[in-house]
Amino acid sequence: MASHIKMNASDAWKWLIAVGLPLLILLIPVSETFTSEARMFLVLSIMAILVIAFGLMDMLIPSILLPTAYVVFKVTDTATAFKGYATQTLWIILGAYVLTVALDECGILKRISYVIIKRLGGSYNATLYAIYIVGVVLGQLCFCGHYFLMIGFVYGICKAMNLKPMSKEGAIMMGVGGMAALNVKVFLYQTSNMSLLTEGMKTVYPDFSITPIQLLLYNFPEFFVALAFIWVVTKVFKTKDVQFEGGKEYFNRMHREMGPMSVAEKKAAVLLAILMCYIMFQPVHGFPLNYGFMVLPYFCFFPGINIASTECLKKIRQFFGTFAFAGACIGIGQVATALGLGVLLAQIAMPVLAPLGKTGLTFGVLVLGSVANLLLTPAAMCSLLSPALASIYDALGYAPMTSILTVIYSLDMIFLPHEVTAYLVLFGFGMMNMKQFVAFFGGKSIFTFLLFGIVQIPWWHFLGLF
Questions:
Q1: In the predicted model, what is the mean pLDDT of residues 113-142?
Q2: In Å, what is the CA distance from 210 to each residue of 145, 282, 283?
Q3: What percent of the chain lies above the pLDDT cut of 70?
Q4: Within 10 A of 94 (CB to CB), how many other CB atoms are there?
Q5: Do 373 and 414 contact (CB within 8 A), yes or no?
Q6: CA 378 to CA 44: how far, in whole Å?
Q7: Predicted pLDDT of residue 279
Q8: Any idea what DSSP says for residue 5?
Q9: 18-76: pLDDT as tens digits
Q10: Has residue 1 got a pLDDT over 50?
Q11: Which long-range contacts (CB under 8 A, 24 or more apart) does 162-165 make?
């Protein structure tokens, strides 16, 4: 007989907020620009996001129901409601995940991680820097599809080093692990977000494009800002003398236990080299970048290559809920654009941002993105903000590139775990409490905001972008 799970008081309050709060939007009067369809869209979208953010249901359920609700409540037609599942971006996300899982199974990612940490790590502070460097390397190899792997890897280090949950040492190391997993997407090419941002910009600038090499060049100062933040954290919390079990010998032992580089790892290295060449020489061969991420990862399972086993497919099947959620999030942005909410946002923001000048506008976009993070998923935010900002920058006569580069920065300016699914996973490991999470990542966001005008904008001036 199936057992029934009783709802506790905490979940009851969460359900009340998740359902009741969005319903208050129905009190807002409609107009020519803010239509009844747009109003219902906000009610349904925010309700679904809050249900997922509070962990009230497996994300698969609201992800499937949300586009269906758009149709049932006559927000839009079926084709538009489910458009998120028909975009290349969704299949890029799946491809990046398949590649990461396959590379992890064959062992090449762990080998790279151990080599870097045993060379750069040793002391507690040195290990923090080494973890971030690992995130940069794996992020480049996996095109930022490494985030769940990176978070799990750092959690494993915390457990191996016997760092206690909620302790200063454990919270800081897990926080740096989160930076290594997600902060690196500020200057490394995350295929899903960049595809959505580019599509949005093309609604105003049809020829707009940005390559992984351009993004790395334009936003690379964030690498040094992140290292500077880690240094500040180690000084503020006096972690120089922190002792942890194993130290450098732990990573040496783990690397030795892997043995010589396997045939599968060598094949994986060749496949990665092919993917890198495809990207670097894209201006020569002319094929879209997306194709590389939609095709090459599946070569891992081809006869004669066999980098990953059929067991690896079980992990990919477990990803289905996240895959559905990604499609729903992309759909949120697609429906919002179809309903004209991007234009409405541009109309509301233009009078506020236009008088600020180029520098003020840039900081305004950072603030706008930080606020949007609280309400929207990264995919929905990319889909909605990029066309709106393209319209604003076009009307003001500013170069469009810096608008996208600033949005990418704002995607990393988070304060609460629910803003990004991977941060929810990180928080769920229990190494950080809410106070520690807000202090670390909120502090990182404020630190980035303060240094943005000192480091990033002058760099754009030097490159002639600003």
A1: 83
A2: 19, 12, 11
A3: 96
A4: 22
A5: yes
A6: 17
A7: 73
A8: P
A9: 899 999 999 999 888 788 998 999 899 889 888 877 778 887 888 889 999 999 999 99
A10: no
A11: 162/244, 162/245, 163/244, 163/431, 165/430, 165/431
The one-letter amino acid code at 374 reads L
User: What one-letter code names the amino acid at 441?
Assistant: F
* Structure tokens given for 283: 């201006």
pLDDT at 6 over 90: no
Instruction: Name residue, tokens 């800081």.
Output: 172
DSSP string, 27-93: GSPP-SSS-HHHHHHHHHHHHHHHHHHTT-S-THHHHHHHHHHHHHTTSS-HHHHTGGGGSHHHHHH
The amino acid occupying position 190 is Q
- Tokens, residue 436: 């520690």
- Rounded Cα gap, residues 339 and 345, in angstroms: 11
From CA 409, how far away is CA 414, in angstroms rounded? 10
User: pLDDT per residue over 376-429, tens digit each?
Assistant: 778 777 877 888 888 888 888 888 888 889 999 998 998 888 777 778 778 877
Averaged pLDDT score across all residues of the chain: 83
Section 73-80 average pLDDT: 91
pTM above 0.85, yes or no: no
Tell me if 343 sits within 8 A of 128, measured CB to CB: no
Contact yes or no for 268/302 (Cβ under 8 A): no
- DSSP H helix total and E strand total for the chain: 26, 0
Structure tokens at 133: 């460097």
Token code pair at residue 252: 């040496």
List C-alpha distances in Å: 194 to 1, 186, 374, 430. Answer: 48, 11, 20, 31
The phi, psi pair for 387, rounded to 5°, reads -65, -35
Residue whose C-alpha is closest to residue 405's, from 427, 421, 426, 382: 382
DSSP for 269-318 reads: HHHHHHHHHHHHTHHHH---HHHHHHHGGGGGGSTTT--S-HHHHHHHHH
Q: How far apart (Å, rounded) are the C-alpha atoms in residues 452 and 279?
A: 29
Q: How far apart are CA 372 and CA 248, in angstroms?
A: 41
- Gap between the Cα atoms of 70 and 404, Å rounded: 29
